[in-house]
Amino acid sequence: MSAKDERFFFLLQMAAHRLKTAADAALVEAGGLTTAQAAMMAIVRAGGTVTQREVATRLKQRESAVGAMAERLLKAGYIARTRAETDGRAWNLSATKKGLKAMDAMGATFAGINAMIDEAFPDRDMERAARGLRRLIELAGDKTD
Predict the structure, then answer these.
(1) Any idea what the Cα angle at residue 44 is, between residues 43 and 47, rounded to 5°?
(2) Where are the alpha helices (DSSP H) in the chain?
(3) Tens digits of per-residue pLDDT, 20-32?
(4) Which pick of 98, 131, 132, 143 has the fewest CB atoms within 10 Å?
(5) pTM of the full predicted structure?
(6) pLDDT tens for each residue of 84-116
(7) CA angle 35, 72, 106 (to 5 degrees)
(8) H-run or E-run covering 80
(9) Which one is the CATH code of 3-140: 1.10.10.10, 3.30.420.270, 3.20.20.10, 3.50.50.60?
């Protein structure tokens, strides 16, 4: 079987879209954040205080995109932003109590999303799928540089 025979690209796109749509809806209901916002919040939360540049690097996104997301999270009260002491052009981000509460509220939701993925890819299938996706990411490369 080949990727073409299985229409693998189409299946991959559909699965990613449906999973993201379902996850966004569930996460917004649970904690008021989308998957992208939750990913950013997880980095901010784990780092204590991190710069927008550090978040962008970890998410493999442009700093301008992270800046726009930071603005939305700031206005919603999920993060605080202060000037970095070492670089007046850089912003430090930290989670607020509201942001931490939202992340805690979404824990069970993330567990449910992961359970759905685990059901689709039991045991060794998960290892093979993850290995294949990592290789595909590697082969496709980062075209934003």
Answers:
(1) 85
(2) 3-6, 8-31, 35-47, 52-59, 63-76, 97-105, 107-120, 124-140
(3) 999 999 999 999 9
(4) 143
(5) 0.80
(6) 888 778 888 999 999 999 999 998 898 999 999
(7) 35
(8) strand 79-83
(9) 1.10.10.10
Question: How many angstroms separate the CA atoms of 91 and 86, rounded?
Answer: 10
Tokens of 44: 């901010």
- One-letter amino acid for residue 51 of the chain: T
The domain segmentation of the chain, as residue ranges, is 3-140
Query: The tokens of 91 are what?
Result: 């912003």
Sign of the torsion angle spanned by Cα atoms 103, 105, 109, 115:
positive
